[in-house]
Design a protein that fits this description.
- It is a single chain.
- The protein is of the alpha+beta class.
- The protein is 17% helix and 19% strand.
- It has helices at 24-30, 58-61, 66-72, and strands at residues 3-7, 13-17, 50-53, 82-84, 98-100.
- Strand 1 (3-7) and strand 2 (13-17) form a beta hairpin.
- The longest helix is centred in the first third of the chain and has 7 residues, at 24-30.
- The N and C termini lie far apart (31 Å).
- The mean pLDDT is 97.
- Bound molecules: FE2/S2 (inorganic) cluster.
- FE2/S2 (inorganic) cluster binds next to loops.
- FE2/S2 (inorganic) cluster binds at residues 25, 38-40, 42-49, 71, 84, 86.
């Protein structure tokens, strides 16, 4: 199972092993990682599952598709490395991924 590190805004790390096929958001919620609200349950309709992908992982994780990009417009403090975690699928290639959580989701 790929190992993913979520780092809270205050620097607190949460290191979890996630089953492939889950979204990063689902994996975070199942493992009680704080800071991901996921109000829409993963439908790419709320932008409250915003994360920042570690620069070293951007190419492997990939860029958002158009629908995700338009939802990201509703998130605060969006950066070029922003993703909605419900739209990132856990796969073996992202074993070791580090993502950072924003200060808040609103
Ligand atoms: S959970 Fe709503 S956009 Fe990701």
């Amino acid at each position: 199972m790929p190992n993913i590190t979520f780092i809270e805004h205050d620097g607190t790390p949460h290191i979890v092993d996630l089953k492939t096929g889950l979204s990063l958001m689902e994996g975070a919620v199942k493992n009680n990682v704080p800071g991901i609200d996921a109000d829409c349950g993963g439908a790419c309709a709320c932008a409250t599952c915003h994360v920042y992908v570690d620069e070293a992982w951007l190419e492997t994780v990939g860029m958002p598709l158009a629908m995700e990009q338009s939802m990201l417009d509703f998130a605060e403090n969006v950066e070029s490395r922003s993703r909605l975690s419900c739209q990132v699928t856990v796969r073996e290639e992202i074993n070791g991924l580090i993502v950072y959580l924003p200060e808040s989701q609103h």
